């Protein structure tokens, strides 16, 4: 079953509690939290305290997408504050293997994300260690951007590389909507992140359902 992960980046920050309640009632599986530091990406968003507050509010899986430099400095705090999955960028972790081991040492799931121009082949020697690969289908930093269609080929390529004996989630993030969801799932995506498509919809429940179907 595909996991729908609404990105809180697009939620109304002043109505966060009711926004989360609505998507939880609508059957969303994970909450995607985009952490940006103003260095790795040209935007600044949430920190560990935000994750702690959301953790007190919801029982959904907290899927934390770190778009930050030196992720090893902040992983402990995000893990202690309730992250269930921490994803770091291939492009920001110099010692990626060590960083993945660090995430797993907190007994939570570890993901690795790649930017649109990064080749999935670069992930070959980390696949045995990770629980999830996140394929970015926009340049990281902002919600509401247009889907980059080459991501579909990248999902297929990644799927062909996955070890058969290990379950690795393939997550797609950026510009996901009711029109491209089925193609993404057919290609092999097992988790869809969607921000604007869900939170800017008049009927958020319907938007979530259209992603699942
Ligand atoms: O990681 C992200 C941006 O860097 C967001 O998760 C992503 O952009 C989701 O927003 P939208 O669905 O509006 O594209
Ligand atoms: Co994201």
Automatic annotation (TrEMBL):
PROSITE patterns for the chain: RIBUL_P_3_EPIMER_1, RIBUL_P_3_EPIMER_2
Xref: SUPFAM superfamilies: Ribulose-phoshate binding barrel
EC number: 5.1.3.1
Record: residues binding a divalent metal cation: 32, 34, 65, 173
Enzyme class: isomerase
CDD domains: RPE
Binding of substrate, residues: 7, 65, 141-144, 173-175, 195-196
Required cofactor(s): Mn(2+); a divalent metal cation; Zn(2+); Co(2+)
Superkingdom as given in the UniProt entry: Bacteria
InterPro entries the record matches: Aldolase_TIM, Ribul_P_3_epim, Ribul_P_3_epim-like, RibuloseP-bd_barrel
Entry annotation: catalytic residues: 34 (proton acceptor), 173 (proton donor)
Any one cellular-component term (Gene Ontology): cytoplasm
Pathway it works in: Carbohydrate degradation
Record keywords: Carbohydrate metabolism, Cobalt, Isomerase, Manganese, Metal-binding, Zinc
Example GO biological process: pentose-phosphate shunt
Reactions catalysed, as given in the entry: D-ribulose 5-phosphate = D-xylulose 5-phosphate
Binding note for cofactor: Binds 1 divalent metal cation per subunit.
Molecular function, one GO term: D-ribulose-phosphate 3-epimerase activity
Its biological purpose: Catalyzes the reversible epimerization of D-ribulose 5-phosphate to D-xylulose 5-phosphate.
Family: Belongs to the ribulose-phosphate 3-epimerase family.
Name of the protein this chain belongs to: Ribulose-phosphate 3-epimerase
Protein species of origin: Proteinivorax hydrogeniformans
Classification of source organism: Bacteria, Bacillati, Bacillota, Clostridia, Eubacteriales
